[in-house]
Amino acid sequence: MNRRALSETNLFLSSKRYSSATQLSMLSSSKSLERLDTPQISEEEAFSIELQRFYERKVRTGREKALENKLLAFTAAMKVLINAQLVNERFTITELVQRNPRYCEIRELEANCFEFEIPVYLDGNYELLVHYAEEGGFVRLQIEDCSNWDDCVTEEGYLSASLVRSNLQLTLQKTLINMSKNIENEEDNLPDGVESISVFCDGSTIVLDINHGGILVDLVPSIRLTKYHIGWCKKFTRHIVPTHVLAKACERPMSDPESLWLLSFVEAEKKMLRQLKDNQQRLLDILVELREMDELLGEISFAQMQTVLFHLVSKIEDGFEWRDEELGERFLDALCILEEFLEKKYCEHFYISEANLFVAMGTVTMSQLKDKIRRITKPSCVACGLASIFGATSVVKCGFKGACA
């Protein structure tokens, strides 16, 4: 797809927004950074230079710290799960072991907060029927001939996600008690870097607390689906079938919330992340770090930022448009997509168009976010846009003496 075609889809900002797309997207050299305080540099150049400075100063170290936390979270969660299957055979690591588990099995929610799927074991020659729910992206599971979960089946015959979560919570509490006794008796020990592990509930979410709140891991019961179970799903998705269902509570249920399971496309997401080009990954890192450092942007979840990038990458596939000198423009394109979602109050799930990722976000918050994004991309106020991202650390000052505020 060429640049003209893309501009007609309103993905690109109008050419009036910048005097030079090349200047706007220029990644700085050390010489460019030295020019930042000189009057000759344009605001467009300053925007790209500031963005590069932000990546080198903040993003790189922030992502390294998040990866360090992720490794520790995975190690601790696996340690607990290995012990949990000794307490309750309903939860097992067999499926994980078959996949040769690595830290990528755990999903980032925040730099120090993650999500880990706990496999649910279904015994016997069970029969599982998947029914699509009116809540976009959710299903109900009708299960038969599965004796070890009989006590978690509703009167309508659906497997209760709520009861499965409760069962996991009790299992983890018993597991940690046993682990504590074993450690006291010097029969076991915590992984390196882990000083303490506890579990608590945040609403309907089971949370593993590592190192007294230093790292948090949401533990979510998960059931793997087969193609036999979900062949029907292609008519609702982008011909990418989900691989799992998760016992995650629906934030805005229209009907019985107890039996709702969330469709998971984690395998497809991991594949797409692996296929990202260097600058596409860099852009995602920048977007994620921005929400880590800004309280208002922090209202946008990691999954929502990732969805914005996925939509952008799917619309701009040409690698030529992802060169180093184009990164600044792609950054603004991503903000434009986000602004459009906020305007519509609808963040379209990348794989299920009828699933709105903004369903639980308040209208006031969406309005505030939309205003903030517009201040960043406002054509006459690049300096104030920079200040709204980087605060007082930005060396570029508003040329309109605050008149654009």
UniProtKB/TrEMBL annotation:
InterPro entries assigned: Mab-21-like_nuc_Trfase, MAB21L/cGLR
Listed cofactors? Mg(2+)
Top-rank taxon:
Eukaryota
Annotated Mab-21-like nucleotidyltransferase domain ranges read: 110-274
Q: Extract one GO molecular function annotation from the record.
A: metal ion binding
Q: Which Gene3D superfamilies match?
A: 1.10.1410.40, 3.30.460.90
Write out the entry's keywords from A to Z.
Answer: ATP-binding, Nucleotide-binding
Q: Which family does it belong to?
A: Belongs to the mab-21 family.
* Name of the featured protein: Mab-21-like nucleotidyltransferase domain-containing protein
